[in-house]
Fold:
Amino acid sequence: MTYPRFRLSAGLSAGALIAAFAAFTAPATAADLKMMFQGDPYEVDAIGAAAKAFEAANPGTSIELIHTPHDSYNEKIGAAVSAHQLPDIVELDAPFLSNYVWSGFLQPIDGLIDKKLLDDMTPSNISQGTYPPDKKLYATSLVDSTVVLYASKKQLESLKIRIPKGVDDAWTGEEFKAILKRLSTAPGVKWPIDIFRGYGTKTEWIPYAYEPLLISSGCDLINRDTWKASGRLDGKACVDAAAMMAEWVKNGWVVPQSAGTNQFYAQGRPAALAWGGHWFYSEAVKAMGDDLIVLPLPKFGDKAASPNGTWIYAISKDSADPQLAGKFLSFMIQDPAFQKAHRDHSGFPGLKSFGAASPLYAPGGPMAVAFEQAAKTAVPRPPHPAYPAISLATQTAFTNILDGADPQADLTKAAAAIDADIEDNDGYPPFGGK
Amino acid sequence: MTAIDTPLPGTSDRFPMIKIVSIAIITFVVVSPLFLLAVASLKPDRFQILAEMGSFKAFWVDNPTLQNYRDILTFSGNQPFARYLTNSMIVLVFTLAGGMAFNSMAAFVLAWGRIPGRAIILTAMIGLYIVPQESIVLSLLNIVNSVGLADSFSAQILPFWASPLYVFLLYQFFSQVPRDLYDAAIVDGASPFQIYWKVFMPISLPALATVAILLGIETWNQYLWPLLVTQSNYARPISVGIAGFFGADSIYWNLAMAASVMMMIPVLVLYLMFQKWFVSSVISSGVKG
Structure:
């Protein structure tokens, strides 16, 4: 054995390994402003370009963009909160805003963003970024969202089904049920409607897209005066509405979860209608062209309702430079290139000027009815710190009910879970209840 | 007839067609998703992939193109997939190098070193193995942040250099080496490190290959930890990069499929390289990968 040579080679190898390790593994450099966000690849590109343009316009300023995959965003935020490392700007899902503000993570942005931007926000956009107890704005966005019905014009015309001309003319609940029944026997139709169960069982889609049906039927996820779910979510109106949806599933009218999310426009068009988000338009129009029509959500009771709310930008309470954060947000949201990227991807307008400049949503545009619907019937999800519990309980209850569970029993269980969460937090003061 | 052709006890070749059909079905079940993945990665239009999913068209591509691969394989831009791939390779190489060294040295000392309380250490190590990573992830994140390693390669490498599973696996292998071999090396004047490096390592290739493959796959597929510990594209690995193609409103199936194919290749190469040793070691040690 040649010990010295062995020692030398071992020492050199270890040295080389450590040197290479040190060279490759130094932490990334720090920035003046940090922003955590999620989004589609085009949003990542648009935000990246806006950050570069801002840096160019403000020499010496650097922005670190922390892009996190959508499906893991909450884990990342949770970890940042635990580590007391929330970045300056945080993107969050609108219905969770009250929870973030109540927990003390965010600060008002009224005085931090441009007055021009503030004045340009649609009422729905303002509502999604406002914390009810102090009525201050905590978040803003270029975009908002809604859910509409999609259909084939040729198919409805051939079956002599009335095509609503606008929101005031929406199908009634009875009419809608008759249409589903008619479609169930129409040639080539495998399922009369896709309510996008394919998005999954633990998804915000459930309270977001199905709540309007409850509200239009005369109930809600929670009583917004007393902030109690029992008596409202498990009341007769909600139970009947949930039972109605369960009956659609039982009748075989709804695309099952296992069939995915493409049955409305896939070859042969197995699903006749789609209860889908505004973003679904760009997918469907690609396959269906002019045959695709957009309709308002049905009016099941005395009033029509539609959802709103999307991913919005807020400034964290611990931001080292909130003025700079507000300046960047104002710059980005009003950046023409940023707006174009969203317009090209059928972004739903959250600014009045953006709506007017979006041919898709402007009067006469193919999605004009969606913009009209948002203006007339949008109802935000309950703006309460208990929303995470409300959302989870609703997801579980509707998944079970659509899978055949008893609507009354599961909604009662959901209401009890929500009330327990509120009670555990002493009513989330100053919310309490009237 | 060679030994490998000898039927196992209790089996026979009486129903060759059943065997062939069964193997064909299993092969189809295993291979078809991979085939679909490869085919879809050659379709440029994500909407076309969705529209054809669920029909036989999903398994066919009329005008194959490498555009998806060209789109993702960049080092610049906001989702630089080539960079993610390189980052993953860096993490893999250094984790494997450090992991193999630390785990094997610890196993060697446990198996042959004169250390008091060996049984207690072994029991504690097995106990550690059942602690899920998720339960310590926040504490680990705080440690990494407090020592200034956030958003670095080190944060993805250092915590995985020591693993109770791999130490125990190698300990089992080392402790079965005949005592005579160890004693002969001592008589020869070898130091403990030389016995480890020149005697035990060369004869432990099957066990080392198993650890290399298991640790390699584990490192390559890590998601939660790199998600939490990386902030920018600087050190972000491919597993987190792929998830970026799954947006809030839509899924970019064309890019995700191409990225998945790219992500699969290194693991496949690693497995094929060590397959022979891996299989023999799994059989002998009873390890389930």
Notes: Chain B touches chain A through 54 residues (CB under 8 Å). The mean pLDDT of chain B is 86. Chain B has two domains: 15-65, 81-246+258-285. Residues 15-65 of chain B form one domain.
